[in-house]
């Protein structure tokens, strides 16, 4: 196993969503996935309850079934986004924003078509107090699993694995729960495709200046 010699800042700023550059043919050792999850379990959770659970999906038929849900949801999402972008409030077709969004749509469409082929699908889950609970303290609930999911992605990046943060399959969360045999008190938070990546051009992404989003003492 190779752990890349990345500084903390490099790791945090170059862990990107990998969609088109996931190697769909190279197997990922389960030991490597387990190691990444062991690191993720060091993340904080509300009251140290550690109510997280991790579905690691490697069976081809199960991956294909989850991939089909993801494909259907991706098609709906991209159609809605295309309509919004072409509407009166959308950016000019030749603007940098429009070009960036087109690249994202293309890579999202690719992942939508190939999610079922990704060697490992990891779904971060959390226990809830009642089956399919609605309302309540959502920040406390999801804040107890989503930081761990991000830690998993960071650990994967350091081990030459590509990942992507995806939630589109949650449109069909109940169908996915049936496929995976999840108990009624388990909710899914994020689906993370995991594979070796191709290419080495990982760099920080363009973001709004911090001065536009940082507020000191008052808004």
Q: What would you say this structure looks like, in words?
A:
The structure is a single chain. The chain is α+β, with helices and mostly antiparallel strands and 219 residues long. It has a single domain (8-88, 95-199), classed as NADH Oxidase (3-Layer(aba) Sandwich). Helices cover 43% and strands 13% of the residues. The chain has 8 helices and 4 strands; from the N terminus they run H-H-E-H-H-E-H-H-E-H-E-H. It has helices at residues 8-14, 30-40, 60-86, 96-114, 138-142, 146-158, 173-180, 210-213; strands spanning 52-57, 120-127, 161-163, 186-196. Strands 1-2-4-3 form a 4-stranded antiparallel β-sheet. Helix 3 packs antiparallel against helix 4 (96-114). The longest helix has 27 residues, at 60-86. The chain is globular, with a radius of gyration of 18 Å. The model has no long low-confidence stretch (mean pLDDT 90).
Describe the structure concisely for a colleague.
Helix content is 43%, strand content 13%. The protein has 219 residues and is an alpha+beta fold.
Our count of helices gives 8
Mean pLDDT: 90
Shape: globular
CATH superfamily: NADH Oxidase
Give the uncertain stretches in residue-range form: none
